[in-house]
Amino acid sequence: xxxxxxxxxxxxxxxxxxxxxxxxxxxxxxxxxxxxxxxxxxxxxxxxxxxxxxxxxxxxxxxxxxxxxxxxxxxxxxxxxxxxxxxxxxxxxxxxxxxxxxxxxxxxxxxxxxxxxxxxxxxxxxxxxxxxxxxxxxxxxxxxxxxxxxxxxxxxxxxxxxxxxxxxxxxxxxxxxxxxxxxxxxxxxxxxxxxxxxxxxxxxxxxxxxxxxxxxxxxxxxxxxxxxxxxxxxxxxxxxxxxxxxxxxxxxxxxxxxxxxxxxxxxxxxxxxxxxxxxxxxxxxxxxxxxxxxxxxxxxxxxxxxxxxxxxxxxxxxxxxxxxxxxxxxxxxxxxxxxxxxxxxxxxxxxxxxxxxxxxxxxxxxxxxxxxxxxxxxxxxxxxxxxxxxxxxxxxxxxxxxxxxxxxxxxxxxxxxxxxxxxxxxxxxxxxxxxxxxxxxxxxxxxxxxxxxxxxxxxxxxxxxxxxxxxxxxxxxxxxxxxxxxxxxxxxxxxxxxxxxxxxxxxxxxxxxxxxxxxxxxxxxxxxxxxxxxxxxxxxxxxxxxxxxxxxxxxxxxxxxxxxxxxxxxxxxxxxxxxxxxxxxxxxxxxxxxxxxxxxxxxxxx
Length: 606
Prior knowledge:
single chain, mainly alpha, 2 domains, globular
């Protein structure tokens, strides 16, 4: 009987002399190697963003360089294994990325293109929702100015300001902290538990503060509204109840944005918006409740929105609390209390100064109308973008060319915002004439100054990225406090001398300190390239086009003539912008798109 050796059985493309068990060991060792390599790469690339100790421990290393560590030497992973990387990759599980599967340049371009598409898609959806929201707010202005006196409008503005300041303390920076830790890969496993833990913290922090504010409602009304407003205490009772609901609504909004459910977010927003419009028209125009109608409408709409978010996000899901996260969430979030409070004072603290220095609530109403229009248009541009940019900004941080991505998006944002705000400044007088009556005409002189101030303020969202990325939020708090102090000091001095224009100019000075002064500080953490030449161009061009819109028209010009002349000037300004600083960006975008199409084009037959 022949004893000839039988041919070795094919083991699926591995070395013929190797058994299936040995081949599987090779694959497992290769998988361990890739995991260790990825862990070491992440720690070295950004040592502060991941818990180094746990990662290095899982990789079998405590940070020491060891020649037998698979991270250092691939050859020692499997001393007797075959070296056919192609066959090994073919038999590996799909989740394992082998050396032959390293991303190519086409993969990188495709990933970048996918990122930009996702950013634009969600921004477009959020933009639709905010467009409708801002359009509704603008359409309600004639209702307010027709049925409310400037003094009533001023009282309503003071109520909103005080409510915003109370919200800063009650919120405690928890939603911002949950947003940041939710984007950290180290906490990805917690998912819903992270947000339920934050909601528990929010409840514990806010309830005592809301009760204290309600007990002191009469004193609060006398201090902010004045003793002449008889129903001030009741106004604040309604405002505090609405605030409690808005805390939950704001927190849920952040959670929904992280989930990137932009369509659902906008659907809820539009539904509540329509309800709020109906209630405002009904209570103010038909029931003639004045300020009470505004407060009742806000309370009912916030209650409905709270119920919707509770059902969608939390009902039927486990409510887990992780006490070990309390300290981390608070440590990251508490500086935002200072930041948000300073930001509120920076934006609206001059209302209190106007109320106490001029002692005329009608002046507060005129200033508030101008501010509301400019802020509304500014939010019309930046909020839809920020809704999705805030969660994705940390994803950009892990891109290899992140500095170029940050700079490109910054330039697009700055030039686009400039074109919108310069249009508001040029058309300020027609806007006031159309949306209000002669009692509010003084607001038109304030709007160009406010537009320039808001342009500077909005750029801070890019300038502060180094502090946010590297978790140095205390520096943002310090800049915010300094700017708020500048706003109060400059406001008190300028309001005494210039009245309403002094309040607008103090905002411009404070916004400049906030953004440009902050940029000089933040770049010491990491010098991201945000060219200030773009800011200089926008500021100079905006001042010139606004001055020209006032210089060559007589004071008694009709609204139609003002609109026509403003359109001519603004069109010329937009053309110069597109042919000037925006031209390299447009050319770069076209080149990138063309190159991507060529690389993704399927190859023909050989």
